[in-house]
Design a protein that fits this description.
The complex is a heterodimer of chains A (about 260) and B (about 325).
Chain A lengths: L1 E14 L2 E7 L12 E5 L10 E9 L4 E7 L3 H7 L6 E8 L13 E7 L4 H13 L2 E8 L8 H5 L4 E5 L6 E2 L2 H8 L5 E5 L2 H10 L4 E5 L15 E3 L7 E3 L6 E3 L6
Chain B lengths: L5 E3 L2 E3 L3 E3 L22 E6 L12 E4 L2 E4 L8 H12 L6 E5 L4 H11 L5 E7 L10 H5 L1 H14 L4 E4 L7 H10 L4 E4 L3 E4 L14 E5 L4 H12 L6 E3 L6 H10 L3 E4 L2 H4 L3 H16 L24
Parallel strand pairs in B: 3-14, 4-7, 7-8, 8-9, 9-10, 10-13, 13-14
Antiparallel strand pairs in B: 1-2, 5-6, 6-12, 11-12
Helix pairs in contact in B: 2-4, 4-5, 6-7
Classes of the chains: A alpha/beta (about 260), B alpha/beta (about 325).
């Protein structure tokens, strides 16, 4: 965990407001888990002030490159989207704890469920699971046709289903509708996306092994500022920090 | 000669740079990045008698050159801080300034009495200015008589010097500072955050779950400088300055305004190495400016500039 000026190798839009950013630097050698994130300073100026927490989508240690998919939403990500090949960005990381690969054995089946900008970290996870001999099924949910990305990339690792809320692409509805309609079965479920989606998955599979990666507004990203805390069931004062205790938690470990 | 060493009540600082309370936890996270013994001191996260979970999320919102926070004094409570956090910090050669908070006078007194007895606590910072807790907090920091009374009571029980953290959310900060000095405070720390708010343009809802929060970061630096400039000329106790410090130049500016040491807050979130980097840069900057020792900078700005011109009321 340190800071480094990483170099932009490539940047391109891949869906509406979704950018694919590839960075090169020695820091990649420290990136050991799918589901970890980096904290990026998009400007050398004081405005915007804070770093942006962005999850790692692809880690390529051989080339010393990592890929991040992010949504251009506010001033910070807009600035990031304007950066060009060869530009340097200040990266702090890798941060947080990733998805536990040991939760599933070779020959078993993992179901990967991603919602919107929660999809990217599941890509590195799918890659690692397949390498381990785990069978992977992916369900990717998006708002609409224009927002869909990485369907083909996930399809390389196994059966992949896409749903859109408005039905303009793939199946109409939510990721949970896909799981029901297709009768998808699994040994372990890994998910990343908006809280309502994670909550629905947690409630749907109370007796299954489920791992959820949370999204939350962050300040420092290292556990010092207490901005991204969530409650622990059955306690008034116990808490976990999404940035440093998570962002991946076992279902039931924190209150969603 | 250590050109950065500063002597303040209760504090022999090897340098005048310390992380501000609430922006550094109890140091554990930053110890993964560098040796905490490099710091002049550490102002640990506010400690209350009982553990507090704090406010619901979202707790932070970004603003131009700053951020709003409404953490709500989340902390593990006095017992745990004394038994776990302070002994852990004792492995480092760095004085601790314990930030004391509460909802009632009795809370403050109890926390101050017990935490001031910890061997590595060299001073207290009385938190009478947190804008994010419903009970107590800022009311102690906005009425001079109440602030003075609390200062007096805490001084009576504290085993170490007491610094009082001033809120900028007052009409007359000089009056507040004088009342606290008269009540026996050993020093002042200033400024705490400014009460602020952001509203989401799409939903019309406040971004912070607590609705309002404390503004910090470079955006508030000019206010901190102005307030320290005014207060330091009106009191004779030393000031630890804070509010948007992010560089060695900022440290010097705070000293010019009248500070004797400086705390770094929000900048720790942006760059975990900011404190040691500032400390490393200060000697070169002193050379460039022609100072032998950092203390020469305190109050340098007092007698400079033209006559004060009041615009409007």
């Amino acid at each position: 965990m340190k800071t480094e000026q990483m170099t932009i190798v490539h940047q391109e839009p891949i869906a509406k407001n979704i950018y694919k950013l590839t960075l090169a630097g020695a820091l990649v050698q420290q990136m050991n888990e799918a589901g970890q994130f980096v904290h990026i300073k998009v400007s050398e100026q004081a405005n915007p002030l804070l770093r942006r927490p962005l999850s790692l989508c692809d880690i390529n240690k051989e080339a010393s490159e990592c890929t991040i998919l992010y949504r251009k939403e506010g001033a910070g990500t807009t600035l990031l989207s304007q950066k060009k090949t060869g530009d340097a960005v200040d990266v702090l990381g890798p941060l947080g704890n990733g998805f536990p690969l040991e939760a599933v054995q070779a020959g078993q089946r993992a179901l990967l469920v991603g919602g919107g900008i929660g999809v990217p970290p599941l890509y590195e996870l799918a890659k690692r699971l397949v390498n381990k001999g785990v069978k992977v099924t992916s369900v990717l949910g998006f708002q609409t046709n224009e927002a869909v990305f990485y369907e083909r990339e996930f399809a390389e690792f196994g059966e992949t289903y896409v749903a859109t809320v408005d039905g303009s692409y793939g199946m109409k509805g939510f990721v949970t509708d896909v799981i029901d309609e297709r009768g998808l079965s699994f040994d372990v479920l890994y998910a990343c996306g908006p809280k309502p989606m994670l909550r629905a998955l947690e409630q749907k599979f109370p007796n299954k092994e489920v791992y959820l990666s949370l999204e939350e507004r962050m300040g420092c990203g290292i556990g010092a500022c207490f901005a991204c805390v969530c409650r622990v069931p059955g306690s008034d004062t116990a808490y976990k920090k999404v940035c440093s205790d998570g962002p991946v938690f076992k279902a039931g470990e924190v209150v969603l | 000669m250590n050109r950065l060493a500063v002597e303040l009540p209760g504090l022999s600082l090897k340098n005048p740079v310390m992380p501000a309370s609430g922006c550094f936890g109890f140091g554990r996270e930053y110890a993964k990045f560098y040796d905490l013994s490099k710091l002049g001191a550490i102002m640990i996260k506010a400690t209350t008698l009982e553990p507090r979970f704090g406010n619901p999320t979202p707790r932070v919102a970004e603003t131009p050159s700053g951020m709003l926070n409404a953490i709500g004094l989340q902390n593990p409570g006095l017992e745990k801080v004394i038994e776990e956090e302070l002994p852990w910090l004792a492995q480092y050669d760095v004085p601790i300034i314990a930030n004391v908070a509460g909802s009632t006078m009795e809370d403050y007194i109890e926390v101050a009495k017990r935490i001031s007895q910890a061997p590595n606590v060299h001073a207290l910072e009385l938190n009478i200015s947190c804008p994010n807790v419903k009970k107590g907090g800022i009311t102690f920091g906005t009425v001079p008589e109440v602030a003075a009374e609390l200062t007096k009571l805490v001084k009576e029980v504290s085993a170490v010097p007491v610094y009082v953290k001033l809120s900028p959310n007052v009409t007359n900060i000089v009056e507040m500072a004088k009342a606290i000095e008269a009540a026996g405070a050993d020093g002042l720390t200033m400024i705490n955050t400014l009460l602020g708010m952001r509203i989401d343009v799409k939903t019309a809802a406040p971004i912070l779950a607590n609705r309002t929060g404390g503004l910090s970061g470079p955006a508030i630096k000019p206010i901190a400088i102005r307030m320290i400039y005014e207060v330091s000329q009106a009191v004779s106790i030393p000031i630890i300055g804070m509010g948007g410090v992010q560089s060695a130049e900022d440290v010097i500016e705070f000293f010019y305004a009248g500070a004797s040491a400086v705390a770094v807050g929000t900048a720790n979130f942006v760059d975990p190495f900011v404190c040691p980097n500032i400390i490393a840069e200060l000697p070169t900057l002193l050379d460039e400016l022609g100072f032998d020792h950092i203390s020469e900078c305190t109050g340098r700005g007092w007698n400079k500039g033209g006559p004060t011109v009041y615009c409007g009321a």
